[in-house]
Amino acid sequence: MDPVRNPYAPGAGQRPPELAGRDRELEVFDVVLERVARSRPERSLVLSGLRGVGKTVLLNTLRSQAIGRLWGTGKIEARPDQPMRRPLSAALHMAVRELAPRHRAPDRIDEFLGVLKAFALRANAGGKIRDRWQPGIDVPAASGRADSGDIEIDLVELFTDAASIATDVGTGVAIFIDEMQDMAPDDVSALCAACHELSQTGAPLIVVGAGLPHLPAVLSAAKSYSERLFRYQRIDRLDRISADFALCAPAEREEVEYEPKALDALYEASGGYPYFVQAYGKATWDHAPRSPITAADVRVGAPEAEAELAVGFFGSRYERATPAEREYMRAMASLATADTEGEAVPTSEVARALDRKPASLSPARDALIKKGLIYSGERGTVAFTVPHFGRYLRTQPA
Predict the structure, then answer these.
(1) Which segments carry the region annotation Disordered (predicted)?
(2) Dihedral (CA of 6, 7, 9, 10) sign
(3) In this structure, which topology does domain 323-393 adopt according to CATH?
């Protein structure tokens, strides 16, 4: 079939042609936006799940919902080596710029921007003059507000002022944070404290974070009350009906159909993980000679999808690991069976498989967690952050 008409989109954060299986999350966020708009108490939102389940796509879709309701929005992607002041300053700057045209008092906007600039410039504290960063805000920095240098104090004050701008125009502010588990502990603590303060006052500012499955544990370690502070939603693979819809709906728009056995084969290959659904769907389309698409077409296209995943999805992550880290991951993979693929394994079992003491493997385990290749959902266990990664590792030479 014509590859130009291929509707599938296996890309990092790229919205698929049909956002299947996420209606509940979209409805929940609509309720959050409406409640905040009516000055009703509401919690910020945290999405967690494995890589490839569509967290970034969903985060971008939720942001579009907020923009559709005339909210001010900003988005950042957390990184382990980057403090929060700079990216958060840019995100709030963008959010307030979206609200500014509807504000009746330009002086109020300038006052906030002065506070925002003061907050941002604290990122330069102690740095060399030639390395100092300028936030690109064309008003003088204010003094005495959000500039103490204590990120927890400053963030509470900054969020409070941003929420007050939103109140003036009868709307809200939403800050979207991807890869939230990579934030520094002090920044996580400050963010929780700021959200806690705003939730008590009913201020119209919310945070929507997305991250790996252990993100709730990261938040809980920062502030014990975070378990009650956020609305948590686990984003998982698609059920069979949703996976079939993700394939069939865009194909029908191109007047192409699937045989039932082809859909069986595609679900078995993809496991229902949205990224894999798109990857296998795209390869199958390109190899199918005509409609309807058959199970034989899936078998012909699958090796191409697997080869692309091996390089771009699995291989790029595997290459980031050191030999010791690869040995640790291969031991994890060796402990899985067909029935337990993707489940957490005890670190004691990994040590036993390698005939090593658990303490001697801590550096490799901690480095893999920091690189986002594995996570520890509960004490004494580890699991891969990437679906089917164990299966991939078992095909790699030692």
Answers:
(1) 1-20
(2) negative
(3) Arc Repressor Mutant, subunit A (1.10.10)
